[in-house]
TrEMBL record:
Taxonomic source organism: Magallana gigas (Pacific oyster)
PROSITE patterns xref list: LRR (PS51450), PROKAR_LIPOPROTEIN (PS51257)
Protein name per Swiss-Prot or TrEMBL: Uncharacterized protein
KW Transferase (keyword) present: no
Keyword rRNA processing carried by entry: no
Signal peptide, first to last residue: 1-22
Keywords annotated in UniProt: Leucine-rich repeat, Repeat, Signal
Any one Gene Ontology cellular component term annotated for this protein: plasma membrane
Any Pfam family: LRR_8
Length: 453
């Protein structure tokens, strides 16, 4: 048979195909072409490898966790970057022309955890930057000209390290900013105009591990569009100070709020006028009580979920009891010992109740009378010795967890179940008898029918 001559298009197309679909970085870097994307993560690289030019655009390139110290001029020549991750290296210097070729295409730059002491001029050339992650660099200030240059589209920034001793005034150019994350800074107060240039655009604010004693009211109370507020590890911030900072208008746009590990003994009243508020999360705060009026004036009719874990609450707060819209209530690892008859009286829509890991030993027989929607109850790791009789007040309970509870299985204690006429057939109870080696469900099925009376 006659050998087929190699068709002419192979000489033209093949190299083109190879250059289009070859990884621009040598192994062990890896590429995927769907986005397209190059991963050179955790390789101990001390310099950016030489790039095989590619005509493909819109690259995401990730050099997370290497040993890059210096980014030279033209380091990424030959590839059009969209996202560049240089986080967790030891970068001290970035040459002015470092991003040449990609200066108009980079939208996301992450350079968290490096050794930058000032913003490199190269950043100022990124005309279309939308997101900039700068946390964990010993930056002392932000160059005003650079901030001005990147302000056109920048909507996200995170920054902070102990070296930042004053509010970086360069932020005032970021008039489009919608998400701001501040971590590990050293200043203990914010200037009154800290957020003023982006007060109309800010939707997300997160402040972590700072010695802030107050959030300045003249900046906070103008944040009409703030949807999500997260405060974590700001141990010098008191509920009163947060309260004062957000007066008199409150934060009317709030949807979600998280407080964690700030040492709060009560919650600040930042919920007034927050008519769209959906959820509140409180973790590792020594909360002892909530103001009875916390959720009264103008409280959200959209409110669905309150999650509190590891607090010092010793009862279900009164202000919570009356929230009609709430569907999920969790107060776990706290100090609640007793459930009263009115603890959930206003919660007509409550579906899930989680009170696990509280020292609860008694639940009022009259609890849950108003909770027609309640189906899932978590009382695991409490001190309950019997199944709360008040579950008979529920319309259609589906699940009750009593796992880890010292339940005493006896006719005296559980015999009432025999007379519970409306017990739904598919109602599941999780847990074990503490006095006999039996699952609660098995005991109910096999032993309770034998009880007399
Ligand atoms: C990087 O260097 C560290 C310490 O020298 C070593 O333990 C690690 O295995 C190296 N990782 C790679 C991917 O070479
Ligand atoms: C600002 O952007 C212009 C235009 O790209 C550039 O020439 C200039 O060097 C930039 N300045 C700074 C301080 O980044
Ligand atoms: C903040 O500082 C802590 C140590 O105090 C460190 O573990 C953490 O990685 C830092 N986080 C950021 C985002 O700066
Ligand atoms: C809180 O403030 C005190 C006194 O101003 C200061 O000594 C302490 O370091 C601050 N705490 C934190 C976590 O910054
Ligand atoms: C917050 O302010 C209101 C009055 O504006 C006050 O009733 C409430 O006690 C304050 N809460 C805290 C925690 O300071
Ligand atoms: C917020 O509520 C207060 C009353 O507590 C009221 O004076 C103020 O006008 C309200 N502000 C907005 C923006 O709704
Ligand atoms: C409720 O909010 C409206 C505006 O949204 C405000 O005019 C009114 O004063 C607020 N009332 C209370 C009691 O906060
Ligand atoms: C709740 O707090 C306890 C510590 O009291 C912790 O062990 C647990 O992981 C926390 N659970 C959640 C979901 O945060
Ligand atoms: C828990 O609540 C009881 C009262 O019910 C109180 O005596 C005790 O001090 C509280 N414990 C903690 C750690 O707050
Ligand atoms: C639980 O509290 C009620 C009062 O609401 C009381 O009548 C009942 O005896 C208590 N149960 C136990 C086991 O102490």
């Amino acid at each position: 048979m006659k050998a087929h001559p190699v068709p002419i298009y192979a000489y033209v197309l093949l190299p083109l195909l190879i250059s289009c679909f070859a990884c621009p970085f040598p192994p062990p870097c890896q590429c995927s072409f769907r986005y397209p994307n190059a991963l050179c993560v955790g390789l101990n690289l001390t310099s950016i490898p030489k790039i095989f030019p590619t005509p493909y655009g819109g690259w995401g390139v990730n050099f997370l966790d290497n040993r890059l110290r210096h980014i030279p001029a033209n380091a990424f020549q030959g590839i059009k970057l969209q996202t560049l991750v240089l986080s967790e290296n030891v970068i001290e210097t970035v040459e002015d022309q470092a991003f040449s070729g990609s200066e108009n295409s980079i939208t996301d730059l992450e350079i968290v955890g490096n050794k930058l002491t000032s913003l490199p001029t190269a950043f100022g050339k990124l005309q279309n930057l939308q997101a900039l992650s700068l946390s964990k660099n010993p930056l002392r200030d932000f160059d005003q000209e650079i901030m001005k240059n990147i302000s056109k589209l920048l909507t996200y920034i995170d920054f902070g390290s102990r070296e930042l001793r004053q509010w970086p005034t360069g932020l005032k150019y970021l008039t489009k900013l919608s998400m701001l994350v501040i971590t590990n800074t050293s200043f203990d107060s914010l200037p009154g105009d800290a957020f003023s240039s982006f007060k109309a655009s800010l939707q997300y604010l997160e402040i972590n591990n700072t010695p802030l004693k107050t959030l300045h009211y003249s900046s906070m109370n103008k944040l009409y569009h703030l949807q999500e507020l997260k405060l974590n590890g700001n141990t010098n911030l008191t509920a009163e100070a947060i309260n004062d900072s957000t007066k008199p208008d409150g934060l009317p746009g709030l949807v979600q709020v998280t407080f964690q590990n700030n040492g709060l003994t009560t919650l600040p009243d930042v919920f007034q006028n927050a008519s769209q508020l959906y959820s509140i999360t409180v973790l590792d705060e020594p909360i002892v009580s909530l103001d009875d009026n916390l959720f009264t004036s103008n409280f959200s009719s959209e409110f669905q979920s309150l999650t509190m874990n590891n607090t010092k609450l010793s009862h279900v707060p009164k202000c919570v009891s009356k929230v009609n819209s709430i569907t999920r209530l969790q107060i776990t690892n706290s100090n609640i010992s007793f459930i009263g008859k009115d603890d959930f009286y206003g919660m007509m829509n409550l579906l899930t109740l989680d009170l696990s890991a509280n020292p609860i030993w008694n639940v009022s027989d009259d609890a849950f009378r108003k909770n027609n929607a309640l189906k899932y109850l978590h009382f695991g790791n409490t001190r309950l010795q019997d199944i709360p009789r008040s579950i008979q007040n529920l319309k259609s309970p589906k699940y009750l967890s009593l796992s880890g509870c010292p339940i005493v299985c006896s006719c005296d204690n559980l015999g009432w179940i025999k007379n519970w006429k409306t017990r739904p057939e598919n109602f599941q109870i999780d847990g074990k008898c503490n006095n006999v080696k039996t699952d609660l469900m098995d005991y109910i099925k096999n032993e309770i029918p034998k009880c007399t009376g």
